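Per reviewer request, we include the raw input and output of the structure prediction for the construct analysed in the revised manuscript.
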Amino acid sequence: MRKQLRLNKQRVTRKFRVSNAVKKNSTRPRLCVFRSARHISCQVVDDLAGKTLASASTYEKDFRESNPNGGNVAAAEIVGKMIGERALAAGVTAVAFDRKGYKYHGRVKALADAARDAGLDIGGKGDE
């Protein structure tokens, strides 16, 4: 139990450090990611205006009808493609990737790569 509490505290500390660095050093809108055991969601947020420009997640009804499992890499790739298309439709071409406290690995990496492949400028692969 103590180990889990320590790991949670480390993740929360890392979350604030990463998010604050992205907010402070970038004028681009942020692509924020939330990952749970069963779902993944993301949104493009303009911090200057305080508005969400686009969002996509595995919670959506259209997604759940075609894909029963939202907690795997394949689901993250689909959500990444969806957010890339929706952001481009909203007029956003470049974003700063805010991975929160999650490691750039697995589902988070798959989402970012799929958004890049959909035409969204996040930066080079492996730069995060």
